[in-house]
Design goal:
The chain is mainly alpha-helical. The chain is about 70% helix and about 0% strand. It has 11 helices and 2 strands. It has helices at about 1-15, 20-40, 45-55, 65-80, 85-115, 130-145, 155-165, 170-180, 190-210, 215-220, 225-250, and strands at about 120, 150-155. It has a two-stranded antiparallel sheet with strand order 1-2. Helix 1 runs antiparallel to helix 2 and helix 2 (about 20-40) packs antiparallel against helix 5. The protein is elongated. The N and C termini lie far apart (about 55 Å). The model has no long low-confidence stretch (mean pLDDT about 95).
Length: about 250
């Protein structure tokens, strides 16, 4: 459908660019996407038709592909809450809308915190190890900010990654790493309260959908099936990975 293509393009731009213009556009578009999705996925008559097909699969002369399609759409609608009673559907819409708004706030905070952060380097000697192209870009960034003759590094990938990978100056690498790993965790862009609200709403959504917690709901939709199975697999990977890390640390 055209809406799916438009939505796909928007979310790709949003993920790749994270510009103020795209963020502002998201505040207008995402609620529209949510409303359109709710109108289709929670439509009683439409779900009833799909359910009727699914309940009568054995009586119908459908080929394997058609049967798979019926099952696919039934599960897709059910996972989005189509099988819930009317009062729970209303609550689900409310929770989904609140989560959507919180994710928009999260993204906005992340963008602002990223754009607000910078490291100013005064001595070119502190840039030893960095490729000349990266140093030149840092000089251009500084000049654009009225700091000609200095060097400015930001948290954007083309600036952050070369510093972490190539810079000989440990202090410069540390400042970049701390800036990146503590991003949007303090001040007016603090995302911690936003995350706490999202976690509570996800737990509420899981209960509405008949699960004990959000982990149960999400793993029920994938191959793992349960949080316990997913954790078991992770622990099987964890021990060999830990042993490998010890080897690499010894080599270093």
């Amino acid at each position: 459908p055209i809406l799916d293509r438009v939505e796909g393009v928007f979310y790709h731009y949003d993920a790749a660019m994270k510009s103020p213009a795209i963020s502002a556009l998201g505040e207008e578009l995402i609620p529209m996407f949510m409303a359109a999705s709710n109108e289709v996925m929670l439509n009683d008559k439409l779900f009833e038709r799909i359910k009727t097909l699914r309940d009568n699969l054995k009586k119908q002369k459908l080929n394997p592909v058609q049967k798979r399609l019926v099952e696919k759409y039934y599960k897709q609608f059910a996972k989005r809450g189509a099988a819930l009673p009317a009062d729970k559907k209303k609550e689900l819409v409310r929770v989904n809308n609140e989560i959507s708004k919180l994710f928009m706030q999260f993204t906005k905070n992340l963008l602002k915190a990223t754009n607000d952060f910078s490291i100013v380097v005064y001595d070119k000697a502190d840039l030893a190890g960095l490729p000349e192209s990266v140093v030149a870009t840092a000089a251009e960034t500084a000049k654009a900010r009225g700091l000609e003759g200095l060097y400015v590094f930001t948290l954007h990938g083309p600036s952050r990654l070369p510093v972490l990978q190539y810079a000989d100056n440990r202090g410069l690498r540390e400042a970049m790493w701390k800036g990146y790993t503590s991003l949007a965790s303090t001040g007016d862009t603090n995302n911690i309260p936003v995350i706490e609200k999202i976690i509570k709403l996800r737990a509420e959504k899981a209960r509405l959908m008949g699960f004990d917690n959000f982990a149960q709901m999400m793993t029920s939709r994938v191959m793992a099936g349960t949080p316990e199975a997913a954790e078991d697999l992770l622990m099987k990977v964890y021990e060999p990975a830990k042993a490998k890390v010890k080897e690499e640390v010894a080599d270093m």
